[in-house]
Amino acid sequence: MGRYVKGVVLAGAVATRAEGQPVRSSDYRLYLKAYISELIAAKLSQDHILRRLKDEKRSISRGKLVKILDVLREEWRQKASTNSDALVSEELASLDTLQAKLWGKALNGDTAMVDRVIRIMEHRAKLLGLYAPQQKRIVGEVSIIKAYLDLDVEKV
Predict the structure, then answer these.
(1) Is 14 helix (H, G, I), strand (E, B) or coil?
(2) Does residue 66 belong to any structural domain of this protein?
(3) What's the pLDDT tens digit per position in 103-116?
């Protein structure tokens, strides 16, 4: 077990350090990140977090808090990205299983199953980002634009 500040509640358990041993700075940084994460989860603002740390005699500067928050956000972003890739893979596997079960009935002419298979295929395409934005071209004369083009600029 690592050495932490005596009496600090971390992840539901009280972490203590051996008497007389110094707290390592890396342990304290881990403690701060975990504690600040808990405060963020409690929806506290930066000012409230700084005040809470000050009240507990663990004061840090606003700049240090911002750096810790940046590190936490980056870690959360990376974790979310990894999790979303896994979720997309699981969803695609589920869609493949569903489509395989319905495929035979759709090929045999069951129109309800054909519709479901098409919806599964559309959902898969959306998950994979295959739907590109469509560009619409409008052809014809637009009277409002023509009216503005006929205006004398000095009168406007």
Answers:
(1) strand
(2) no
(3) 999 999 999 999 99
